[in-house]
Design brief:
single chain; alpha/beta; 15 strands; globular; binds N-(iminomethyl)-L-glutamic acid; binds fe (iii) ion
């Protein structure tokens, strides 16, 4: 198979090692100046100084004296929805809170009403430019959740839309069944239907890798979430949890206890949750777009890293709490809002985000990993974390050794 040699990287910067990067390891990047690397069959087969390459190759690509980093992994999005939340946005700007709007049957419920009546085709058409924006912002792997369907059939349609979307983008999509908010009536029956019918159907049709539950006062209780997540585990699906967005209700502790891949949000987490996370192997995912858009206190990223918790960062792209269409901006915001260092933020968006999706073959540049990488406009990798709002910061996006943007 043909081998491509990439030369003239001003620096190649990457976390090393698959799995969880905690504590000082989270901030430890490997930096190789004046680097070259070889790619075969979409994987990296060699990295080093050009003079040390003594294999054969079929083509050479000069990256132009620019920095190369792993492509981002956006481990938390709700990229499929119909309708909009512009009225919520305006109401919140006039003083109404996100929780008040949700409790009154708006917010997520409004998006549910609009999404449930959309066809799979419409959902795909609406989602395509959103995924394209995330890809342009450097995300080669993107998790996408259902959760605006509510009824089992509408949730299945959302997951079918994700499967269809996969055929229209070079980004790797990782689908999640999200059990988001309960119906106005019959929540006990609803949880039972999810456990007995929806999860088995999703598994039978191969529609999701993960099951996620939103644990919150206006959403599911810890006990309801436990039933759903245990059923998911029994069916061989991996777990994710939305917890501590507004209140620390025990969702973080449940996620750790059940060995969830990640627990996301954590804006309301404090010492007890940090201590629980430090004992486990669940990735803590920061969503700085939510803090910015809803004006919530940022999740304690600095404290989590210092406590040895593996931390990831994601966009949480969704119409209500985080209309953030750039993974590069999410990384940059994690430094400003959550107190990560640039190096910690890069690890959070790459190696630890891959761990939050249960994969080890991406999120770092090493022999054997997928050749998913970014060529930056700059010779200094730190520009990708420093810059706010300049899409050209990322000159090229490569997925599996193929140029997909730039
Ligand atoms: O991750 N918090 C719950 N779910 C989403 C928001 C969904 C919405 O507001 O439409 C989140 O923030
Ligand atoms: Fe979310």
């Amino acid at each position: 198979m043909s081998i491509t040699l990439f030369t003239n990287c001003a620096e190649l910067v990457t976390p090393l090692g698959g799995g969880l990067h905690r504590g000082t390891l989270q901030g430890l990047l490997h930096r190789l100046p004046e680097a070259a690397f070889a790619v075969q069959d979409g994987r990296i087969i060699w990295i080093g100084a050009l003079r040390d390459w003594n294999g054969n190759h079929d083509r050479v690509i000069d990256v132009g004296g620019r920095a190369v980093i792993p492509a981002f992994v956006d481990s938390h999005t709700h990229a499929i929805w119909a309708g909009h939340r512009l009225d919520d946005f305006e109401a919140r700007a006039q003083g109404k809170s996100y929780e008040e709007i949700l409790a009154a049957g708006g917010g997520i419920y409004q998006t549910v009403r609009q999404t449930a009546i959309a066809s799979v085709e419409t959902l795909v058409t609406l989602a395509k430019p959103r995924v394209a924006a995330l890809l342009r912002s450097g995300a080669a792997t993107i998790e996408v959740k259902s959760g605006y369907g509510l009824t089992p059939e509408a949730e299945l349609n959302m997951l079918r839309a994700i499967a269809r979307l996969q055929t229209e983008t070079p980004a790797a999509l990782f689908p999640t069944l999200l059990i988001h908010v309960p119906p106005a009536e019959g929540r006990e029956q609803y949880v039972q239907d999810v456990v007995e019918h929806l999860i088995p159907t999703v598994v039978r049709e191969g529609l999701a890798r993960f099951v996620d539950v939103f644990i919150e006062q206006e959403a599911f209780t810890v006990e309801e979430a436990r039933r759903i997540l245990e059923a998911a585990k029994t069916h061989g699906l991996e777990l994710k949890v939305h917890a501590d967005q507004f209140h620390a209700l025990g969702g973080v502790e449940l996620a750790v206890e059940l060995g969830a891949l990640s627990v996301d949000h954590l804006e309301a987490s404090s010492e007890a949750q940090v201590a629980a996370l430090a004992q486990g192997r669940t990735v803590a995912t920061l969503l700085p777009g939510v803090s910015l858009h809803l004006g919530l206190p940022p999740a304690p990223g600095r404290i989590l890293v210092d406590a040895n918790v593996p931390v990831a960062v994601a966009t949480d792209l969704n119409p209500g709490s985080s209309p953030l269409f750039s993974m590069q901006l999410a990384v940059a915001l994690a430094v400003r809002l959550n107190g990560l260092t640039p190096a910690e933020a890069l690890t959070a968006a790459t190696a630890n985000a891959a761990a939050a999706l249960g994969v080890r073959d991406r999120g770092r540049l090493e022999e054997g990993c997928r050749a998913d990488f970014l060529v930056l406009a700059s010779a200094d990798w730190r520009d990708v974390v420093y810059t706010l709002g300049a899409p050209e910061t990322i000159a090229q996006v490569w997925i599996g050794g193929e140029l997909v943007e730039g």
